[in-house]
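Checklist before submission:
- one chain only
- standard amino acids only
- sequence pasted in full

Submission:
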Amino acid sequence: MSDYKIPKVWEWNQEEKNQLGNQPVAGSRFEQTLPVGEHPLQVYSLGTPNGIKVTILLEELKEAGIDDVAYDLYKINISEGDQFGSDFVKINPNSKIPAMVDYSQDKPIRVFESVSILLYLAEKYGEFIPTLLSERTELMNWLFWQTGAAPFVGGGFGHFYEYAPFAQEYPINRYTMETKRQLDLLDKHLAGKAFINGDEYTIADMAIWPWYGRLVQGDLYSDADKFLNVQEYPNLKAWADRISERPAIKRAIDMEYKEIK
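Returned file contents:
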C-alpha cells in the first residue's frame, strides 16, 4: 500500500529538471545543426520499434525494385537527448523519433510520426498500400489501431515491466492484462491469414510487426515472451516468424545509423 496522496494541483519538482528526462513543456532545449546527406530522403531515427518501421518500408521498396529510393539514415540518440535539439524539433515539434524530410520536392516536406511516414512513402511510391477502397479502409483500421494500442505495450507494459525503478504489482497486472488482450486480438485476426490485410503484405504489417512480432519473438523486454506466455498465440507467432525472414526486415534491423555529431 502506497502512502502517496494526490495533491489538489500537480507541480513539477524543479530539482528533477534535466535535459534528457521528461519535462511538462515542449520545444527545443538547445541549439543543434543536423547533418543533411546527399540523398533526397533524410531520416532521423533509432532502432526502436517505432524507428525501424521506416527503415523496413524503405528497404522493402528497394526489394520491390523501386530504383529511386535513396536515403540517409541518422541516429537520434534519445538517451542523450538529441530529440530536443533545435533542428530536430523543427522537423518534429513533438520531439519523438522517427522523423523525415523529403528534399525531392520544390519545397522540402517534413514528415513526423512513424505511421504518417509509412503512409507518405507508400503513397509516394505506390507500393504496399491497396487502391481498392474496402481494402485500403481495412489497412487504415489496423494502422490507427496500432498507433492507439502500442503505447499500452511500450509506455505501459514495457515501462513497468522493464524500466520502472522498482516492481509494482498494480500497473504490471493492469498493462499485462491489456497487452495479452491485444496479442489475443491479433492472434484471432490472423487465423487463416498470411498478413494483416489478408493475402497482401502492406504497411500495416510493417507498422505492427516491430511491436507485436518482436514481442512474441522475445526481442522486446527481457524474457517478456515467457512472462506473457506467447505460445498461446500460434497464429500471431507464425505471422511474426514469417515476416522476420524477409530480407528487407533483416536489413532494417541491422541497419547502421550515421552519427549526427
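Reviewer check: DSSP finds nine helices and four strands in the chain.
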